[in-house]
Amino acid sequence: MRLDKYLSDSTDMSRKDIKSLIRKKAVTINGEIASKPETQIKDGDAVMVNGQEVTYKKFVYLILNKPSGYVSATEDKKYPVVTDLVPEEYRHFDVFCAGRLDIDTEGLLILTNDGEFVHEITSPKKNVYKKYYAELDKPLDSADVDAFACGMEFKDFTAKPARLTICNETSAYVEIAEGKFHQVKRMFERVGKTVTYLKRVSIGGYALPCDLALGGIIEIDKDTLANLIYSEV
Ligand code: URA
């Protein structure tokens, strides 16, 4: 791969910035000053800019604790979007959402620029369960647990059996295999309840870190994330 591509994929520098740094002799490859943007970089080469090593990175995987009020999109005419919360250092990766949460839903949202990864974890074939914490306007009972466990027929899809675990009278954890539009809210509506608060707490075996503040973002390594997600399917 060319030196300028290596640096532009891995950092927020433009090709113009890179050219200028090369001209200023600020870029080295294995300790030698780089003189041309088109120099080929091989596996194992150490590329440094101003004495700082730059490791190659094409894709990035971010975990967001989504706050209410943000749309799960990269742009919206009316409301702020989740990508507004992405720190400057990750902006050039042009991340998008792996699945969606409603504007008023909080919690775990994966942001990445790796489309293949998104396809994999959101594919219904993978049977990755998503777990939500929900608060309701009315008390829950065991009939609701049974109704969720039987699966539900909607006009646009059939929800696979879902696991409902009642926490107290008006709150519960619910685990669903799909991620259809307003699915959790629609399933509760079916049993006569309105969701007053909703938060996604895990995807497969990956749980939202409890020390990640609302609106906070952390980077995670792809293999760690994938292994945890698939550790519980
Ligand atoms: N189900 C919903 O109803 N809303 C969400 O945001 C996610 C799942």
Descriptive report:
This protein has 233 residues and is of the alpha+beta class. It has 3 domains: 3-53, Structural Genomics Hypothetical 15.5 Kd Protein In mrcA-pckA Intergenic Region, Chain A, CATH 3.10.290; 59-125 and 213-233, Alpha-Beta Plaits; 129-203, Alpha-Beta Plaits (2-Layer Sandwich). It has helices at 3-10, 15-23, 115-122, 142-149, 183-190, 222-229, and strands at residues 27-29, 32-33, 47-49, 52-53, 61-66, 96-98, 106-112, 130-136, 152-153, 158-159, 163-168, 171-176, 195-203, 206-207, 217-219. The strands form 3 sheets. Strands 5, 6, 7, 8, 11, 12, 13, 14 and 15 form a 9-stranded mixed β-sheet that branches. Strands 2-1-3-4 form a 4-stranded antiparallel β-sheet, with no helix packed on it. The longest helix is centred in the N-terminal third of the chain and has 9 residues, at 15-23. The radius of gyration is 22 Å and the shape is elongated. It starts with a helix and ends with a helix. The chain binds uracil. Residues 101-102, 105, 182-185, 198 line the site of uracil.
Tell me the name of the CATH homologous superfamily of the largest domain. Pseudouridine synthase I, catalytic domain, N-terminal subdomain
Task: Encode the helix/strand succession as letters.
Answer: HHEEEEEEEHEHEEEEHEEEH
CATH class of the largest domain: Alpha Beta
Mean of residue pLDDT values: 95
> Would you report the number of β strands?
15
Largest sheet, in brief, is:
9 strands, mixed
Quick overview:
This protein has 233 residues and is an alpha+beta fold.
Feature tags:
233 residues; alpha+beta; Structural Genomics Hypothetical 15.5 Kd Protein In mrcA-pckA Intergenic Region, Chain A; Alpha-Beta Plaits; 6 helices; elongated; binds uracil
